[in-house]
C-alpha cells in the first residue's frame, strides 16, 4: 500500500513538501507521487502522539467507551499509540484478555493499542498478577491505576519482577487513608463550599513512600523503573525532582487538565470537574508548568476517563472521577502553552518523551521509519464541539472554547486512521 501526502510542512520550515509512505514505512520526502495522493492542506507534519494513560473501558464497561470509539478518538486527537488502563470488568490481569484486546484493536484501523496489565490480581493489591505471562501476551506496562497500591511489600516485589522483565510499573500515587472520602482538593474552596477535601499530602506522602522503595532497591544494586501517573501537586513534583537528582529510576507525567483547570471550578458543584487526583490550586498548576519547562516532568498524558453523561450528572459526592478529552489534548496544550513552552517542547512531551519513559525507540520521520505521523493545522482556530467527538463521552469542560492545532490527518502503520472531513 502506497500513500503520498502532499502540501505539508515540516516543523521549523515554511517550505511545502511531500512524503511517500509504502508498506507501513516512510519511503522518502519529495519523491514522485505514488499511490493514493492526499492533500495535507498546508499543515505541519510531525510524529504521531503517544498516550501512556487512557481508559478505554473494554472489556465490560462499553457503555462508557470501547476500543472502536476510544481508538478512533485517539486517532482524531493525533495519537498513533495508546496505552489503555486495566481497571475494566474483568480486570486486565489475564494473558487471554491482553491477547483478545490486541487482536480486536488490530482489526479497527485506528490508533495502535498497547494494553497495560494489572500489577496485582484483580487490582486488589494483595498478590502479584502473572507478570511474565502478561508481558508475553503483549502487555506494555504494569499498573493498578484506578486503585492505589496500599501494600508496600507487594509493590516492592512488583517493581523487582517488572524490572527483571524490562518493564515499567506505573502508579496512582495517593495514600488512601489520607484521601479518605475527599472528592476535591482540600483547601480554601473545599472549606468554603463544604465539600470533603483530598489533601495534597495524600499524593506527596505516597510519592515519598514509593520513591523510598525505589531508593532502597537501587542501593542494593537492583534498579527498577517507577512511573508516577497524573502528578498534581508542587510538593510531589519536588520529591520526583529530588529522586532524579539521586539517579533513581523515577519518572512522572502531568495531565493537561491539571495545568488548565483548578479547584475553583468546583464552586459550580459540577462533577464534570471531578477527577482523581483532584484539580489543585493555581499555584500547583503554575509549578507543574515550570516542571515541564525544566524537564522535571517527563511527559504529558491525558488520563482520558470517559463516563456516561448520567453518571457525571450525579451529585458531586457520588459521581465518578474522570474527564475524557483525548481528541483535544494537543490543541489544548498548543493553544494555552504554545507561547510559553514552544511547539517543539510540547511535541517532545507528547511523542519522544513518553517513548523514553517506556524504553521504546523515539519516533522519527526519517526515511525507513515506521509511518506513524500526524498533520496538524497550527493556524486555524476551531470551536470545541463535543457532539462531534469520536468518543462516546460527548461532553467536556472546554466545550465552546476556541482552540488551534487540530489534527488534519493521522497515519498509523502507513494507513490513514483519521482524516478531517
UniProtKB/TrEMBL annotation:
Cofactor: Zn(2+)
EC class: hydrolase
Transmembrane segments: none
Matches recorded under InterPro entries: DHOase (IPR004722), DHOase/Allantoinase_Hydrolase (IPR050138), DHOase_cat (IPR024403), Dihydroorotase_CS (IPR002195), Metal-dep_hydrolase_composite (IPR011059), Metal_Hydrolase (IPR032466)
SUPFAM superfamilies listed in its UniProt record: Composite domain of metallo-dependent hydrolases, Metallo-dependent hydrolases
Residue numbers binding Zn(2+) 2: 145, 172, 230
Keyword field: Hydrolase, Metal-binding, Pyrimidine biosynthesis, Zinc
Binding-site list for substrate: 55-57, 87, 307
Chemical reaction(s) catalysed: (S)-dihydroorotate + H2O = N-carbamoyl-L-aspartate + H(+)
Record-listed Zn(2+) 1 binding positions: 53, 55, 145, 303
A GO molecular-function descriptor: dihydroorotase activity
Function: Catalyzes the reversible cyclization of carbamoyl aspartate to dihydroorotate.
Family designation: Belongs to the metallo-dependent hydrolases superfamily. DHOase family. Class I DHOase subfamily.
Protein name listed in UniProt: Dihydroorotase
PANTHER family linked: ALLANTOINASE
Cofactor detail note: Binds 2 Zn(2+) ions per subunit.
Native organism: Deinococcus rufus
Gene3D superfamilies the record matches: Metal-dependent hydrolases, Urease, subunit C, domain 1
Pathway this chain belongs to: Pyrimidine metabolism; UMP biosynthesis via de novo pathway; (S)-dihydroorotate from bicarbonate: step 3/3
